Amino acid sequence: MIAPLQRALVAAEQPVLRAHGLSMWGYVVLDTLEGQPVRTQVALAEFIGADKSRIIGVLDELENDGLLERTRDPADRRARLVTITEEGRRRHGAAQAEIQRGEERLLAQLPAADREALLRSLAALVDALPKLGQD
């Protein structure tokens, strides 16, 4: 039941992201950097589950658009630090707000008690995710 919903939500997000000049991976990168504004490229790729060589093109695109900056890590000259810019924050925030409005429209289809129960249940499942691999 979750897979069709996930596919529909991703499909609904695509035009929103395009309107804000973002790819899905670009949005994921900015979303991650919004939570922790400085990461190494390798740590960022690991955190979002992307191959570190595949993420380079996404980072290049975001950097060319002025949405992030990459600098050498003073502690390790081989590593590059990735930092979200103010424009990156602005564009991420605008896209995120529009995506959330769409999610709210979908959730409004449920009675308030069902909506609250669904959101609590989803939060509990997200919290349980790290434990799945331990069984």
What pattern of helices and strands is seen along the backbone? HHEHHEEHH
Which blocks of ≥5 consecutive residues have pLDDT under 50? none
Q: Given the structure, what is the number of helices?
A: 6
Mean pLDDT: 93
Give the full name of the CATH homologous superfamily. Answer: Winged helix-like DNA-binding domain superfamily/Winged helix DNA-binding domain
Main β-sheet, spatial strand arrangement: 1-3-2
3D structure, described in words:
A hairpin with a 2-residue loop joins strand 2 and strand 3. This protein has one domain (2-104): Winged helix-like DNA-binding domain superfamily/Winged helix DNA-binding domain (Arc Repressor Mutant, subunit A, Orthogonal Bundle), CATH 1.10.10. A 3-stranded antiparallel β-sheet has the order 1-3-2. The model has no long low-confidence stretch (mean pLDDT 93). It has helices spanning 2-19, 24-35, 41-48, 55-64, 86-107, 112-132, and strands at 38-40, 68-73, 76-84. The chain has 6 helices and 3 strands. By secondary structure, it is an alpha+beta fold. It starts with a helix and ends with a helix. 16% of the residues are buried. Helix 1 (2-19) packs across helix 5 and helix 2 (24-35) packs across helix 5. It holds the Pfam family MarR. Residues 1-127 form the HTH marR-type domain.
